[in-house]
Write a structure and sequence with these properties.
Blueprint: H1 3-13, E1 26-28, E2 36-37, E3 44-53, H2 64-82, E4 85-95, H3 100-114, E5 120-128, E6 132-141, E7 157-161, H4 166-175, H5 184-187, H6 193-198, E8 205-208, H7 213-224, E9 227-231, H8 246-255, E10 262-266, H9 273-281, E11 285-292, E12 296-300, E13 306-307
Parallel strand pairs: 4-5, 9-12
Antiparallel strand pairs: 1-2, 3-6, 4-6, 7-10, 7-11, 8-10, 9-11, 12-13
Bound molecules: adenosine-5'-diphosphate (ADP) and magnesium ion.
Length: about 325
């Protein structure tokens, strides 16, 4: 394949149209041996990377637009979970053939999300091979402001953004051959970047929900040395779960992945901020439980009964993924 022509095309089609008027900080972008980026004075660099392989992380017939969107979204979601402002991205592409139409759709998907978050593509690598997309997101944060998984303390409120369980439900319906109107829940997750940026200074811990609520909450609790009580009746429900039996619905909400909402813990003195953020961001925020001493997760049903979740979230490789 003509790698250089493809790189030129990527460069041309991802040139950031500045909507914010902010300096992109790119002193040298695509086209040299490496990019040179200017960090705002006094900021730290935040870096995250994620790879999506065809047939594993997305179906082989997924459109290039959707692959690019998803790959950027999952990385921006990691930036959000740290409280960082995403600025730049590096893209490693392994492509079976050099198809300009494929690249055109890919860069359109990438730009649709990158431009709304002011993210510039500053470099990458292009090779010939099985379809695989690896993206590195770079962001900035003021020193010491990062939201980690380890800061939750007993008494903190558990708060989740948006709704959960929708993406997993969509995937299951699609896999069983049923038509789904809400496919955007799976294909176009909205990384909660704006929310991530208001949380530092208030939230004690934060994570994005990629593998399912129980699984990702478990990471926070283990890192923090705490347990938690989850009130199942308060879990925010995607509309696509309407009409399902409670137990089925809870299974999606507790164990379904791919929603990319933020889960954070909030010390009670900051509880009033929840209403402020809701209004400021136009985003639903739900208090779904509380951090406690000890270990593990207790799921409490609406009538006060204890619910035993069978399935504890999608874990890579353990189920053949
Ligand atoms: P080198 O051989 O020095 O690594 P390459 O030919 O791989 O250089 O890349 C040339 C330029 O194009 C570099 O600036 C690199 O960052 C950029 N680039 C290559 N592939 C991509 C890609 N998929 N997306 C964005 N930039 C890319
Ligand atoms: Mg290279």
């Amino acid at each position: 394949m003509n790698e250089f022509r493809l790189i030129e095309q990527i460069q041309r089609e991802t040139r950031l149209v500045s909507t914010t008027g902010l300096d992109s900080g790119v002193r040298l972008g695509i086209g040299d041996d490496a990019a040179v980026l200017e960090l705002p004075a006094g900021y730290h660099l935040v870096a995250a990377t994620d790879t999506l392989n065809s047939g594993v992380h997305f179906p082989t017939d997924t459109s290039p637009y959707d692959i690019a969107y998803k790959c950027l979204a999952v990385n921006l979601s990691d930036m959000a979970a740290m409280g960082a402002r995403p600025r730049w991205a590096l893209l490693s592409l392994s492509l079976p053939d050099a198809d300009p139409e494929w690249v055109k759709s890919f860069t359109a998907g990438f730009q649709s999300l990158a431009s709304s978050h002011g993210v510039s593509l500053v470099g990458g690598d292009t090779t010939s091979g099985p379809l695989s997309v690896s993206l590195t997101a770079l962001g900035v944060i003021e020193p010491g402001r990062q939201l980690t998984r380890s800061g939750a303390r007993p008494g903190d409120l558990l708060v989740v953004s948006g709704t959960i369980g929708g993406a997993a439900r969509v995937l299951e319906l699609l896999q069983s051959g049923q038509p789904v109107e809400e496919q955007h829940l799976l294909d176009r997750p909205q990384p909660r970047v704006e929310l991530g940026q208001v949380l530092p200074g208030y939230a004690s811990a934060c994570i994005d929900i990629s593998d399912g609520l129980l699984s990702d909450l478990g990471h926070v609790l283990r890192a923090s040395g705490c347990s938690a009580k989850l009130e199942l009746g308060t879990l925010p429900q995607a509309g696509i779960l309407d009409g399902l039996e409670d137990k089925t619905k809870w299974a999606y909400q507790l164990s379904g992945g791919d929603d990319y909402e933020l889960l954070f813990t909030l010390p009670p003195p900051h509880e009033a901020m929840i209403a402020t953020w809701r209004q400021q961001l136009g985003l639903s925020l739900s208090v779904i439980g509380e951090v406690e001493t000890g270990e593990g997760i207790r799921c409490i049903g609406p009538g006060g009964e204890v619910h035993d979740p069978q399935n504890t979230g999608f874990e890579h490789f353990s189920q053949g993924a």
